Amino acid sequence: MDAILKTENLRVEYRTQDSNGVKVAVRDLSLSVRSGEVFGFLGPNGAGKTTTMNVLLGFVSPTAGAAYLFGVDVRKPIARQRIGYLPELTYYYKFLTAEELLRFYARVFGLPRAETERRIDRLLKLVELEPARKRLIKTYSKGMQQRVGLAQALINDPDLLILDEPTSGLDPLGRMKVREIIQRLKQEGKTVFFSSHELGEVETVCDRVAIIHQGELKVEGRVDDLVRTHQTNLEQVFLRIIGYQPQSVP
Amino acid sequence: MNKVLALAGVVFKELYRRKDFYVLFFLTAVLTLLLASVNLFNDQRVVRYLKEVCLLLIWVSALVIAVVTTARQLPAERESRTIFPLLAKPVTRGQVLAGKFLGCWGATGLALVVFYAFFAVVSGTREGHWALGATFQALWLQWAMLAVVIAMALLGSLLLSAPSANSTICFILVGGILLVGGHLNTVALQQPEPLSSLIYALYFAIPHLEIFDVRDLLIHDQPLVGWGNCLLATLYAAVYTATFLLMAWWVFRRKPLSA
Lengths: 250, 259
What we know:
heterodimer, A: alpha/beta, six-stranded mixed β-sheet, four-stranded antiparallel β-sheet, 10 strands, globular, B: mainly alpha, 79% helix
């Protein structure tokens, strides 16, 4: 099966202000995500997850290697025609209502007006914001902001969704709703690539995961294979792979 | 073009849902109407002072709206992180800049129409004749000048992360150009070399925003500027606007964004 998302020996370096001058954020990362998969991209803070996503979305240019979405180099804007992206903690234009926000993004994709209205109705129902559709976004709670973010990521009916910590900062009910939406998208045959620190959630919804640490890919495989091989849950697998040693309390 | 218009539409909505424009228009209207209600020594020429004050308020208000609205656009996108879902869509950074420019310029133009309509009504009712051609010309030239200022502020917003610093620098630059820009050649003549050449170079490099200021013609009921000259001034503004926008695009496309 063809890879929808692919990185080949991806390397990203940043200039730092200390004497060394260069920090390697991602080292020779090769990944591939296939159609219809829910793929979890895991790693501790500073592991290089967000940097990899930044490259995939064209925000940052790789120092070496390449990244492709649907076989198109990510540096070309057309590579982003069939993706939806939900960034972590975004405060959408507070002077717009949810339906105005979605109408704006639909216009960016060049959707016809009738289709736009149909999708707005469907998405606001999906993310349960139908009653608040005409309210200014500045009046929304954090959970509602995250759900309007999910709706904007779906406005173009994308084949691939890139979600950066979609449940971060949400209460248990908000997390459950987002998880249900991801599962529903999976049933619709969408490909989902997401980063998360909620390993229980990852274990529930993901088909495959990749774990990176200090910019390097440590493991990539099916969740059930990893759990079976290590004979423990995903959280313990993750801790072992990143080399975490529990310290005894004196 | 649809993407650029969609982006411009968001800026329009922002302007009319914020209070800045309403506050400035209210202040201009109140000050002008207060002055209009005063009858000093039955002097009919007092209407000229009224027009002068009203036009000065319009110039200051439009400049504030243009600079403040533009200076916050890109920093606000970064601060609220909306730049990320936006650029994750098939939109180029050039289109984002063009949309922001068009939105700010269009919104400022709309504000100018309201201000000048008010000015036309006040001066027309006081003078008994309607100088619509001259009013339109003054509006058009001011709008053309504001295109240069908006492009400059957009470039500034990419170089300086704080909108307040960018706004302050823009106000100083625009104020400086309007007040002394046209006299730099005279100043250069009185300076020794190499200062003289430097000031001359500055004189030829800066956009001469003062040429767009035809308030005196409007105040003293002078004949209109020729429409050919008006067109030349518009082209002059277009060249400087395009230059600043190209510089902004060059900076923006090289700027790494980290989500």
